[in-house]
Design a protein that fits this description.
- The protein has seven helices and no strands.
- With 82 residues, it is mainly alpha-helical.
- The mean pLDDT is 96.
- The two termini are 21 Å apart.
- It has a single domain (3-81), classed as Dioxygenase LigAB, LigA subunit (Protocatechuate 4,5-dioxygenase, Chain A, Orthogonal Bundle), CATH 1.10.700.10.
- Helix 1 (3-15) packs across helix 6 (59-68).
């Protein structure tokens, strides 16, 4: 399991405008730059917030990531509680 790599990717998207721009243009390409498990990669590409959380994405990194994608807070909370 590579929760560290998953959190690092999410943090980079949150904080680095160049990575963020590239991520929204080519999610798979950015995902290939990190040592993600197949489950992590699949959840990331599917934008499955609940799965990302269960796979180890930290809530303080995951929520800003979902804000960038304009996910309302009630939807975020429902996803991580499922």
């Amino acid at each position: 399991m590579s929760a560290y790599a998953l959190n690092k990717l999410l943090r980079e998207v949150n904080r680095n405008p160049q990575v963020r721009e590239r991520f929204f243009a080519d999610r798979a390409g950015v995902a290939n730059d990190y040592d993600l498990s197949e489950a992590e990669r699949g959840a990331l590409l599917a934008q499955d917030v609940g799965a990302l959380y269960r796979l180890g994405a930290h809530g303080l990194i995951l929520r800003p990531f979902t804000i960038l994608q304009q996910m309302p807070e009630p939807d975020y909370l429902a996803a991580i509680r499922s």
